[in-house]
Amino acid sequence: MTMEALEKYNEIFRSSFGVGDEQLNELEYKVYPEWNSMAHIGLISALEEAFGVNFEAEDIFALTTYEDGKRLMKERFGIDL
Fold first, then answer.
1. How far apart are CA 78 and CA 30, in angstroms?
2. For the stretch 32-71, what's the b/e string if a residue is b when 16 or more beta carbons lie within 10 angstroms of its beta carbon?
3. What tens digit of pLDDT does each residue of 47-79 get?
4. What is the largest CA-CA distance in the chain?
5. Which residue range is the domain that position 54 belongs to?
6. Contact (CB, 8 A) for 78 and 72
7. What residues have CB less than 8 Å from 25, skipping those under 6 apart?
8. How many domains does the chain have?
9. Closest CA to 12 of 49, 59, 52
10. Domain containing 11 — which CATH number?
11. Cβ of 16: how many Cβ atoms within 10 Å?
12. Within 10 Å of residue 21's Cβ, how many Cβ atoms?
């Protein structure tokens, strides 16, 4: 499941921001131009739908980088990416 879950997670980030795999680790909220507040809501919604989870407000604010999201998915929802 880990590889499958990671691929799903990566695809959400790639499609949300129009980037390739090589750019994923560089993504940061409000630093990467395409990751603005509207895109952030879209990202959260896509992650919730794909993984069947519900983010709390503090989770939404904590997800500010690609790596933060991976850590959050494991710690909050037990999804190992």
1. 27
2. beebeeebbebbbebbeeebebebeeebeebbbbbeebbe
3. 999 999 999 999 999 999 999 999 999 999 999
4. 32
5. 2-18+27-77
6. no
7. 66, 67
8. 1
9. 49
10. 1.10.1200.10
11. 19
12. 9
